[in-house]
């Protein structure tokens, strides 16, 4: 075989998409194996029913464990496999002396959560972790809590010490994650981004570990917009733990754990939490595509009291550049005849993009009046404003099309109502457009 330059080999290898083809190339010769091993295993994606195979591989070849940087685990069906756990028993005893028998039983039964906890002990160089597994974690999430607390023997191990990005996803409300079980991720030293769906702040007793202290976490992005979440406390423990949070997203679902209870969107709880990040928050997407607050959904506070859950002013959020938020939340339109505030009073001076979600046509007078007032202050107070978006709640469906945002049409009445404002935006150099993302009430043409 004619030898190729290593740089050329790496360029060729980058064009190989299938994981099995990448592994096959390692068998060509020793030179290729040595050169390509790290790249072949840099990103690994597998089902939870396949974790035991990867554990066996990293046991036989420690180089693989150091190569894995991005690890993605999806739910997999249990099957009849040869789960050889004997070589792992000593490791389990060492890290979990008081609970090792239950853990070993989980390994023998092929429980994905038990195997994930074992795998984490070996892949100590992983920086990105994406999981789509059951939220009822008996082994992995408790181990994360112990690692974050630096409990023995994890005080001398490098488990999860390089982890920067965590994504927790779920396709089933029965697999929701409890927020308290996920808080330890924020205590890990290298963490910078935490993303989750199916996260619920449901009450279920006191956690067995201490939550992160205020402003102790290096996380700069919290994203609870991957799927349905229910934050009855405004995700306060997550937000307040961040020292310099830059990006926050949350999309609400009224259904809590297992859809056993229904808790509406609580703007005030989120506002109180976000006030701890006035100095650093740059992007805020707050329930602009989730379920809007419903009066028939329980919105009692923990003490049983019920009050109008208003938001608050963002004028002091000096770093905020991008804002996506329901118009009724921002203007605090509730039981009042008119909103108690105006856009030019509640928006921060450095704002560049404003997205007003859930625009109802009955609010047209209030919205258009506030938008015109905002533009009057464009040159002096909002000189950085470059784009305004409006997300109508009512949209039309193209004749014969399936319900999908690309097939929705903004009603002519809405477009005509905003025409004078759009012309004013053009004159001032501000882009104005409608957005069709999010939840809508779809009107089918007759």
Residues in helices, as a percent range = 25-40%
**Strand elements, count:** 17
Main sheet? Answer: 12 strands, parallel
Globally, the shape reads elongated
Distance between the first and last residues' Cα: 70 Å
Strand content: 15-25%
Cα radius of gyration in angstroms: 26 Å
Q: Helix- and strand-based class?
A: alpha/beta
Provide the low-confidence segments as ranges: 294-308
For the biggest β-sheet, the strand order reads 1-2-3-4-6-8-9-10-11-12-13-16
Q: Given the structure, what is the number of helices?
A: 17
Mean pLDDT: 86
InterPro entries: LRR_15
Protein name: Leucine-rich repeat domain-containing protein
Organism: Aspergillus homomorphus (strain CBS 101889)
Pfam families: LRR_15 (PF24969)
Descriptive account of the structure:
This protein has about 450 residues and is of the alpha/beta class. Helix content is about 30%, strand content about 15%. The protein contains 17 helices and 17 strands. It has helices at about 5-15, 20-25, 30-40, 50-60, 60-65, 90-95, 100-110, 110-120, 140-150, 180, 235-240, 265-275, 325-330, 345, 365-375, 410-415, 420-430; strands spanning about 45, 70-75, 130, 165-170, 175-180, 195, 200, 220-230, 245-250, 285, 320-325, 355-360, 385-390, 395, 410, 430-435, 440-445. The strands form three sheets. It has a twelve-stranded parallel beta sheet. Strands 15-14-17 form a three-stranded mixed beta sheet, with no helix packed on it. α15 links the parallel β12 and β13. The longest helix is centred in the last third of the chain and has 13 residues, at about 365-375. It is elongated and about 75 Å long. It starts with 5 loop residues before the first helix and ends with a strand. Pfam families: LRR_15. InterPro entries: LRR_15.
